[in-house]
Amino acid sequence: MLILECPYCGVKAEETELAAGGEAHLKRFGPGSSDDEFHDYLFMRENPKGVHFERWRHANGCGKWFHAARCTTTLEVFGTYTAQTSVPTQEIIDKIAAKRPGWTWREFADEQK
Amino acid sequence: MSKAVSVLNGAQYTGIAKVEDAGLQGMITLRGDLDSKALKAAVKAATGAEVPAQRTISVAENGAAAWMSPDELLLLVPYEDAVAKTAELAEALAGEHALAVNVSDARGFFRLSGEGAREVLGKVSPVDFDGDAFTPGEFRRSRLAQVAGAFWMNEDGSFYIVCFRSVGEYVFKLLSAAAHPQSKVGVY
What pTM did the predictor assign? Predict the structure, then answer.
């Protein structure tokens, strides 16, 4: 059972209170982009074994969207953070680096590497 | 005007806890900046209660204000006053980025009391109802089995439960089944 703390209401919500929203930090390619960019934006998703960033919604609760960083192999949750950002917060990046030195995910990576 | 009736019109069930339709309750959804002075004053004027802290309900003599999300409150007022109070709120908040809507007739409202109340709610909701974890004055939006619901605890240990009116019958039957006289687990 996945337990995420909602950063907006502070509830330690378990999975059945939440709705999964897929991969986090997607950059939209819309009108004016090339076919390849649009294709990648629509279909290409990360499927990592390890560190992963996701969007979640506290659906049966305050109703707010937020971001979560977790490990797909151990289900360890590194932290949750605001939805009002297009990159992981420094605090989250540091927390992951402490536990998974050398991690990478899309264009983000352990800065110590 | 037609006669207003609450969702199950006063139905009751008694098992390890007592489940009852709590009757007509005026409810106003208010969205806006909860830190704004105008909003705080408007809430005080409408309910007599202060703007509540995160995940709590502040209760006054003739009304209450409950924390729904960082930008939303649920105001409880007498049913007869809901329309007028909604208009007053809208007027007081003119110019603010805020919205008040009377949702009294869109909600089901139940009271759950008795020794088994914590246990009954604990069976249908993924919330910790331990005496130390859930205390009077706390307000929680969560899940009642398959539907969304919100509840809070009164000083006497009873709960008030709010759900959408469309699922009112489901919630009543759900709580009644969870309160079956022979279903005591004895956790709380």
Answer: 0.90
